[in-house]
Amino acid sequence: MRSVEQFKGLVAKGQGFARPNFYRVILPSVIGGVKFPIVGELLNRGISNLKRTIPAEDINMLCTATNMPGRNLLTHDRRIGMVNKKVAYGYAVEDVTLTFRVLNDFRIKEYFEAWQNSAVTTEYELKYFNDYSEDVVIQALTNSPDADYDKLLRLSYAGLDQGGLATALAGGESVVYTCVLQNAYPTQVLQMQMSDAQADQLLELNVQLSYKDWSRKISNKTDFRDSLRNRITDFAIDKVKEKLFG
Q: Is the pTM above the cut of 0.85?
């Protein structure tokens, strides 16, 4: 049985307990915009301002709930003699759902309507997959008082806060986990229920994102150090195996 002090040490080593309300979503400023670091993001934000669409930071503030994606292994039964076991042959990912508060300008709804229109237009024209699929980032944030969220916000204006080396070196320890939904798009913008019996409630919009796959990215300096250490260790182990086993 573990002692209380051991448990406290474990919590301290893991930087405290993760909280479900410390998160951030980063959606594209412009659908089908310029996909190029810094310059591309600045151009996209300029286009967004000209069109008076909702900024990415506002989309994040209106998001009241989301979920980190999982991955399910697909298996089939394999029987050899009397032994039956499950053998993996692939994997599947589930859609991600986001919930947003709706303001009286309805710009959050218009954003996702425009996104869907970039896939299937109101003139019933079909577009290419790469024209309407975008990367979406979901991040778990730390509840540490040392986190620099202002620096993270400044990075976002250049599109450098979506995980990777820039976030690790310049973003401090604000982000603890970064998940990127690759080639995502809103397959469902669900209906909004309106009723005079809900006079004391806020209107919400639920959106379902489908995507090709998801991956984890480096989120902070600790991630970067661990990744570098693991690469060096794996390289050394491979060299030892080559010497021992040829």
A: yes
